[in-house]
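Moderator note: this is an archived Q&A kept for reference. The question asked for a predicted structure of one protein chain; the sequence and the answer are reproduced below.
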Amino acid sequence: MDRRDFLKRAAALGALLAVDMTAAREAFAKNEPVVAKGNTASGENLVAIMGGEPAAMVDRMLAEMGGISKFVKKGQKVVIKPNIGWDRTPELAANTNPLAVGALVRQCVSAGAKEVLVFDHTCNDWRKCYQHSGIEEAVTKA
């Protein structure tokens, strides 16, 4: 995917989320995942999950997109690039939620990935970013 395609998809997702604010309010009030689906101008599917626990949101998103096996095949090496740029704890929400990253790693392993690598180019000391974000522990446990 090139930068232009990424920006188009991001804009389409933003528009999709902006249209259904009622669903977003309900999702946050119930703390349960609510699904919004749509298509980009080029016909690609988009799925947005709002509300609920991070691991459940990842699992639901993958299910809505046809399952992890649609993206990860047995024996593949998988690279996951979450945001781990900042030496901040999960409560500050500066990085990707570690529970979501752990859930994605588990899904990749369950699909038969031979190796799952998780990394980012950090802005602060990478050792502190990985540890304090909670992502290192989540990935290790997964």
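Archived answer notes: The chain has a mean pLDDT of 86.
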